[in-house]
């Protein structure tokens, strides 16, 4: 059964989504992941279990949706005055958040309940949007810069791999090295 992509709905649907997401986060903190059930989440959210099953399919898909929403950035990257500084700060923050135990758990949840790859695409789009903001600022300052795909390949992809499979040595110098190497790639021609 393929579920619809979870977009930010409006009205009652938005209230239900927020109540269910809040219930998942609260119950996870109170009773732990292993004790979570759809009926427990539904009761806390004030909806019927059938509402949760109809909208999310099963508990894993619900956890996946909650994780993707948690991984959505709250604000644009800060402007630190140059492309290199902006990327270093963004990469440090990305690494710190995603490499934390909670971050790794959210990434795993986002992928586990996503057989079609929609959530992976949403997470990738979040990173690409953030990086595009940094690149647009660099363009406004007249700085040469690689394209978004290069930054995803050279910064985000290696960090994500290491976060999931080789979580040792994930400190700011690692993020700085990736940024430096990404900036050594010839810039895309202005066009």
Query: What structural category arises from helix and sheet content?
Result: mainly alpha
Considering the protein shown, what is the CATH homologous superfamily of the largest domain?
Tetracycline Repressor, domain 2
User: Could you say how many structural domains there are in total?
Assistant: 2
Helical content, roughly? 55-70%
For the record, the CATH architecture of the largest domain stands as: Orthogonal Bundle
In N-to-C order, the SSE pattern is HHHHHHHHH
Main sheet specs? none
Shape, per Cα inertia axes: elongated
Low-pLDDT runs of 5+ residues are 1-8
Furnish the topology, listing elements before pairings:
Layout: H1 11-31, H2 38-45, H3 49-56, H4 59-71, H5 83-99, H6 101-112, H7 118-140, H8 148-165, H9 172-183
Helix pairs in contact: 1-2, 2-3, 4-6, 4-7, 5-6, 5-7, 5-8, 5-9, 7-8, 8-9
Quick structural overview:
It contains nine helices and no strands.
How would you sum up this structure, described in words?
With 191 residues, this protein is mainly alpha-helical. It is built from 9 helices and no strands. The chain folds into 2 domains: 47 residues, Orthogonal Bundle (Arc Repressor Mutant, subunit A), CATH 1.10.10.60; 109 residues, Tetracycline Repressor, domain 2 (Orthogonal Bundle).
Task: Summarize this structure as a short list of keywords or feature phrases.
single chain, mainly alpha, Tetracycline Repressor, domain 2, 2 domains, disordered N terminus
């Amino acid at each position: 059964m393929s579920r619809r992509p979870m977009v930010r709905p409006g009205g009652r649907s938005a209230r239900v989504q927020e109540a269910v997401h809040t219930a998942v986060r609260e119950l996870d903190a109170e009773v732990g992941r292993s004790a979570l059930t759809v009926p427990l989440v539904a009761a806390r959210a004030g909806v019927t279990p059938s509402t949760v099953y109809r909208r999310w399919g099963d508990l894993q898909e619900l956890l996946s949706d909650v994780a993707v929403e948690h991984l959505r950035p709250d604000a644009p990257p800060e402007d630190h005055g140059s492309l290199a500084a902006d990327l270093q700060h963004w990469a440090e923050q990305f690494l710190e958040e995603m490499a934390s135990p909670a971050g790794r758990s959210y990434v795993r949840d986002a992928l586990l309940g996503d057989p079609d790859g929609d959530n992976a695409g949403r997470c990738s789009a979040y990173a690409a949007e953030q990086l595009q903001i940094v690149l647009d600022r660099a363009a406004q300052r007249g700085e040469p810069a690689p394209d978004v795909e290069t930054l995803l390949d050279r910064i985000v992809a290696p960090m994500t791999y290491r976060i999931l499979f080789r979580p040792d040595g994930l400190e700011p110098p690692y993020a700085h090295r990736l940024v430096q190497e990404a900036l050594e790639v010839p810039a895309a021609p202005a066009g």
